[in-house]
Design goal:
- The complex is a heterodimer of chains A (295) and B (245).
- Chain A is mainly alpha-helical and 295 residues long.
- Helices cover 70% and strands 2% of the residues of chain A.
- Chain B is α/β, with parallel strands linked by helices and 245 residues long.
- Chain B has one domain (40-65, 82-243): Rossmann fold, CATH 3.40.50.
- In chain B, 30% of the residues lie in helices and 27% in strands.
- Classes of the chains: A mainly alpha (295), B alpha/beta (245).
- Chain B: Keywords: Amino-acid transport, ATP-binding, Nucleotide-binding, Plasmid, Transport.
- Chain B: InterPro entries: AAA+_ATPase (IPR003593), ABC_transporter-like_ATP-bd (IPR003439), ABC_transporter-like_CS (IPR017871), BCAA_Transport_ATP-bd_LivF (IPR052156), P-loop_NTPase (IPR027417).
- Chain B: Belongs to the ABC transporter superfamily.
Chain lengths: 295, 245
């Protein structure tokens, strides 16, 4: 096979695949952040921790209840979503009248508590989580080898992302959500229970993080710090895409994952910072983000 | 004084909305100081008064969009004070706010169908299009790309679908060209003919005079006078003093 710019295609496509996998997680997480920010105006710093909780719920289900991957894929997002609703009802909802900064501080504190608790219980070393039997092995695509599980993660996250986008931009329920994001008082004056909608939105946003955690468990190890490592990049993705923009979060998440992969091929030294370089450039040229609207 | 005058015009029907000694607060500031008024079935009643007299606040108090309220607001016999905010519109009260509140992230159709249907007997979309032909064929346009007058029509139109029987219209003519005001007037009269009960806040007193049955005059957070529309001419001097025009 021919090489491209002196790079063997296996290396190039291997890194692109890795980039697409990372991008899938960036997209899923930043999507949840965007939904939450749009509706609650809260920068949810606990998002990474709840992603970690999702992975741990999957691991605990397998270890102590014998419930495998497919069960966890359903149960873990529900558990994380309910946890999120409880946090919103008991704590976050008290802060809406204050500056946004308080929401950020609260969720940051919650993230530290969650991560601390899991670290105390399970240590910092990761717990392995097996790939489900149905998705073991891989496909030889000729130019590269595609492990089945990684292909599944990409497809699953694309389906979830665009399903969420469709639900928000094209359905009646989404119209309520968009309207309440713009003018909650008026939506309430039409007879819609906005506080309940806010709780459910937060629950849904963090359930996406929990789901991402389950998807991640067989790829990365299940570790208390897995969220912390990821969340900083995800925040950069959200800033680049534009705060609160659904499509921006999805496209930027996938795009930056790929960009990271490419950087690893052509200039590996920069691969850890390329996202932040892009963020700095975007902030200079278009402070509202690529898909953001000026407020 | 308003009570005495009201009994004379009690022909229109039974009371739909009764407000008694309503006090309202935004945080520390006390904005409504004992508002009392009554709106009967099928009536068009205006709230007149200078800026800051409490007209918009009265509407917001009815809808529950106010920190603290005391006194009594009864709609068809049901007390609204203390009721959960999202339940008030479900009784059949439609609110068209002063700023119109058209959502920019929603299309015209989405704006039109956003408020949930709360009662039977609401108007259908074709009927609404007959009333506001400007909205026809604009369904996929972004809501806020409509002209000011069309946005006002949309703001009224979306309430008509819901089956609400009492409509609170806050300054529907504000900032609009005379030809558009004329169109809004035609629409409001058509709504009255359909049996809607309407409370109208207006600065445009000439507009109000063409559609209202009675006028309440507000000053400093309470009702100071009530003038039936047919006695308007006789009360012109008084009204000019109230409104400072």
């Amino acid at each position: 096979m021919v090489s491209l710019l002196g790079i063997p295609p296996q290396v190039l496509f291997g890194q692109l695949l890795l980039g697409l996998i990372n991008g899938s997680f960036y997209a899923l997480l930043s999507l949840g952040l965007a939904v939450i920010f749009g509706m609650l105006n809260v920068i949810n710093f606990a998002h990474g921790a709840l992603y970690m909780v999702g992975a741990f719920v999957a691991w605990l289900l397998l270890t102590y209840a014998g419930i495998g991957y497919w069960g966890a894929l359903v149960v873990a997002p529900i558990v994380v979503g309910l946890l999120g609703i409880a946090l919103e009802k008991t704590m976050l909802s008290r802060l809406y009248k204050l500056d946004h900064l308080y929401g950020l501080l609260l969720t940051f504190g919650l993230a530290l508590i969650l991560e601390g608790a899991f670290r105390h219980q399970y240590g910092v070393s990761g717990q392995p989580y097996p790939i489900p039997a149905a998705l073991q092995g891989g496909q030889n695509l000729g130019f590269m080898f595609l492990p089945n599980y990684r292909g599944w993660v990409i497809v699953a996250s694309l389906v979830i992302c665009f399903g969420t986008w469709f639900a928000i931009e094209r359905t009646k329920l989404g119209a309520y959500l968009r309207a309440a994001t713009e003018n909650p008082t008026l939506v309430q004056a039409f007879g819609i229970n906005v506080p309940v909608m806010v709780s459910l939105t937060y629950g849904f946003g963090v359930a996406l993080a929990g789901l991402a955690g389950v998807l991640a468990a067989p790829i990365y190890q299940v570790s208390p710090l897995m969220g912390t490592n990821l969340i900083i990049i995800v925040f950069a993705v959200v800033v680049i895409g534009g705060m609160g923009s659904i499509l921006g979060a999805i496209v930027t998440g996938l795009g930056l994952g790929l960009l990271e992969g490419l950087t690893k091929v052509f200039y590996p030294e920069a691969s850890n910072i390329v996202v932040f370089v892009v963020m700095a450039i975007v902030l200079l040229i278009k402070p509202a983000g690529l898909f953001g609207r000026e407020r | 004084m308003p009570d005495g005058a009201m009994t004379k015009t009690a022909q229109t029907g039974t009371a739909m909305l009764e407000i008694a000694d309503l006090h309202g607060y935004y945080g520390e500031s006390h904005v409504l100081h004992g508002v009392s008024l009554e709106v009967r079935h099928g009536e068009v009643v205006t709230l007149l008064g200078r800026n800051g007299a409490g007209k918009t606040s009265t509407m917001r108090a009815i809808m529950g969009i106010m920190g603290k309220r005391t006194g009594s607001i009864r709609f068809q016999g049901q007390e609204l004070i203390g009721m959960a905010q999202h339940k008030i519109p479900r009784l059949g009260i439609g609110y068209v706010p002063e700023e119109r509140g058209i959502f920019s992230s929603l299309s015209v159709d989405e704006n039109l169908t956003l408020p949930p249907v709360v009662k039977e007997g609401g108007m259908t979309v074709p009927q609404i299009h007959d009333l506001f032909p400007n909205l026809k064929g604009r369904g996929s346009t972004q809501g806020t790309r409509l002209s000011g007058g069309e946005q006002q029509m949309l703001a009224i139109a979306r309430i008509l679908r819901t089956g609400a029987t009492l409509i609170l219209l806050d300054e529907p003519t504000e900032g609009l060209a005379p030809v558009i005001i004329e169109q809004i007037g035609v629409a409001v009269r058509a709504l009255k003919a359909r049996g809607f009960t309407i409370v109208l806040v207006e600065q445009n007193f000439r507009f109000a005079a063409t559609i209202a049955d009675r006028h309440y005059v507000m000053e400093e957070g309470h009702v100071v006078d009530m003038i039936p529309n047919d006695q308007l001419d006789a009360n012109m001097d008084k009204l000019h003093t109230y409104l400072g025009v």
